[in-house]
Write a structure and sequence with these properties.
The protein is an alpha+beta fold. Helices cover 28% and strands 39% of the residues. Coenzyme A binds at residues 74-76, 81-87, 113, 115-116, 118-119, 122.
């Protein structure tokens, strides 16, 4: 098992056709312009997990270059969930943000996901920034955020 940076091509393969194409293009553009990183877990030549670190987004509550980074699209393939892979991937990406000099990281979680909420709280995402009804990384063809189910934006300090 290896946790490493993934390439835009690998992201395209992992996403396939299952997500809105505009959102996929937004992520690919951010990766290519260095405004985001794609971190992945490779096991037996297969990518089984993904987590994206955005450095720059229009809404400064989510990300501010050099100061606050936004974590999103956190997934482990269903048959590998609950075995600690997600925790390891998250720890690696938090380390990366700290190494880059970031002071804090944000993450979104729906109130309907108590398991995820517990995991994030355990990992130090203790401050709630606001309730959101759009995610700056979930966009339409014009790259404008589309409305979504309400979710909490949580914050973790990297300074301790
Ligand atoms: C959230 C997710 C990335 C965590 O990865 P993981 O490898 O399952 O996580 P770990 O095994 O390291 O840790 C499991 C912790 O996450 C929680 N968890 C969340 N979803 C889980 C799932 N489907 N299966 C098992 N545990 C899950 C567990 O409760 C556990 O916390 P606990 O130790 O307090 O009980 C993964 O479960 C997943 O892809 N879920 C579906 C997509 C999703 O909800 N993504 C996040 C929002 S975009």
């Amino acid at each position: 098992m290896e946790i490493r940076l993934g390439t835009p091509q690998e992201m395209e393969q992992v996403w396939g056709e299952q997500f809105p194409q505009s959102t996929k293009r937004f992520f690919l553009q951010a990766l290519r312009q260095g405004q985001a990183e794609f971190w992945t877990i490779e096991e037996d030549s297969r990518l089984i997990g993904e987590l994206y670190l955005f450095f720059s987004l229009e809404d400064p509550d989510f990300a501010v270059p050099g100061d606050r980074a936004y974590l999103c699209a956190f997934r482990v393939i269903p048959e590998k969930q609950g075995r600690g892979y997600g925790t390891q991937l998250m720890r690696r990406v938090l380390k990366r943000a700290r190494e880059l000099g970031y002071r804090e990281v944000s993450i979104g979680v729906e109130e309907t996901s108590p398991q995820n909420l517990r995991m994030y709280r355990r990992m130090g995402f203790t401050r709630q920034v606001k309730i959101c009804t759009q995610d700056p990384c979930d966009v339409n063809e014009q790259f404008h955020p589309v409305p979504c189910e309400p979710f909490m934006l949580l914050l973790k300090s990297l300074e301790t």
